[in-house]
Amino acid sequence: MKQSRTNGRDLEGSGALQLNNNEQTNTPMKKELYLGLDVHKDCIITAVAEEGRKGEVRDTGVISNDLHALEKWVGRLRKAHGRDVILRACYEAGPCGFGIARRLKQLGVECEVVAPSLTPKRAGERVKTDRRDARKLARLLRAGELTPVYIPEATDEAIRDLCRARTDAVDDRRRSRHRLKGFLLRHGYRYQGKSSWSAAHERYLRELVLPHPAMKVILEEYLQGIAAAGERIARCEVGMRALLEQWRLAPAVRALMALKGFQTVAAMIVVSELGEVDRFAHPRQVMAYLGLVPTENTSNDKRRQGRITKCGNAHARWLLVECAQHYATPPKVSQHLSRRQQGQPAQVRAISWRAQNRLHSRYTRLLGRRLQRNKAMVAIARELCGFIWELLHTQSCYHVQATSV
Questions:
Q1: Residue-wise pLDDT tens digits, 278-330
Q2: Which secondary-structure segment (H or E) carries 244?
Q3: For the chain, which residues make up each domain, given as ranges?
Q4: What is the value of pTM for the model shown?
């Protein structure tokens, strides 16, 4: 019986498909290794987990906590398991920062910095050692049970550190002021003026006559500490404004300054602390990241909500609560706000005006329910996160590749 030409082509195509499937089957899969790092100030305890559910988990020794020793260790692993081996590493977030993760990424190693508070723990574990921790991290990384944290770009982290240094200077000045006022109050000196730390208050402190030379030394040291902290704040702010023009997220900072209550310092702090906003798919995720959502204990048909979680970025949470104070006043585009909104698109100005109306109306209703003012301000700060999320999602600067410092 003669075979048709069409059937011949079909047989030829099926043969080629079967050959391709055989080639894919015979292609060897790349080996994977999972690396657990227990990072300390002076050393790193390492462990390796083989791929597979029953893969071996073993210690690989202790190395010095420097990048050169880390590179040599990765080189030894690739020499022992082949150049094509896929390495995946992890270590817990801590005081050693993200330098290890960035260097491993440059070496072609996928590295995650995981949240220690979200690492699974067995209830019956009573023995904890560094080697056990390293093996545990490697095993959990292989199982996919770890929660990674956000690793900022090097430039973004540097700007964030500068913003935090300014806040540290503000805290130091406040503590010095409190110590000075407490010292004077213990000895019966009370300032009777209207406002503290004004020019009149400083003249009062300089003209104060104290009975003992030791008290004069203490007063002068406190005044010098307050003045030094003020100079630190001024230098940090000058540096922040100078570096803002070179920062890739400068358009996002200027857009945020179009909102009521945000000037240069506040806008830079919020943008640097949030980092890449594209990782937040919904405004509720920003609220949870800042610890502004209420705690909840719900069972069956009973729902109980308590105070806010305060889990997350405390620096940005504090600043948003401070900025929320401005929305207690009626909506208005002041002269300073109008100047900051110059050059911004209509969409940004519309979000700013909508935020003023919504948040002030919300604040009025909460006070009408006789809610405590501090709780009302936290609720306003929580809703303010939604407007910030919407506004920053309009900025294209987040899609620009960052350059390292």
A1: 999 999 999 999 999 999 888 888 888 889 999 889 999 999 999 999 999 99
A2: helix 213-244
A3: 32-143, 154-244, 250-399
A4: 0.86
Q: Please, what sign has the CA dihedral across residues 375, 376, 377, 378?
A: positive
| Phi, psi angle pair for 170, to nearest 5° | -65, -45
Cα-based distances in Å from 295 to 275, 306, 307, 320, 375 = 25, 5, 6, 19, 14
User: Which pair of structure tokens corresponds to residue 231?
Assistant: 């100079």
The pair phi, psi for residue 123, each rounded to 5°, is -65, -25
Q: What is the pLDDT of residues 56-71, one digit of tens each?
A: 999 999 999 999 999 9
Domain 32-143 has CATH 3.40.50.720: no
- Grouping H, G, I as helix, E, B as strand and the rest as coil, residue 378 is helix
CA distance 301 to 298: 8
- CA–CA distance, 179 with 125 (Å, rounded to integer): 45
In 3D space, the residue among 113, 172, 98, 160 whose CA is nearest the CA of residue 316 turns out to be 160
